[in-house]
Amino acid sequence: MKYFQQNVGLILIIIGTLTLVLTRLPALNAHNSLLVAGLVLIVPGGILHIRSIKHDSRF
Fold first, then answer.
1. Tens-digit pLDDT profile for the chain (59 aa)?
2. Is the N or the C terminus of the chain less surrounded, counting Cβ atoms within 10 Å?
3. In degrees, to the nearest 5, what angle opens at C-alpha 56 toward C-alphas 51 and 59?
4. SS3 letters for 1-59?
């Protein structure tokens, strides 16, 4: 469980990126909600990933 907590930010970034890749499919490219969902996953994922790096650091 500790491994998952350390990498939750990176996992959110990967899921958000895959969501943005899905918008390239012809059936899903007319929906802006997928773009917003990707953004909503990537931004907090980046923040959590930076927090986990700073938390593990000695500085």
1. 777 778 999 999 999 999 999 899 888 888 789 999 999 999 999 999 999 888 877 76
2. C
3. 95
4. CHHHHHCHHHHHHHHHHHHHHHCCCCCCCCCHHHHHHHHHHHHHHHHHHHHHHHHHCCC
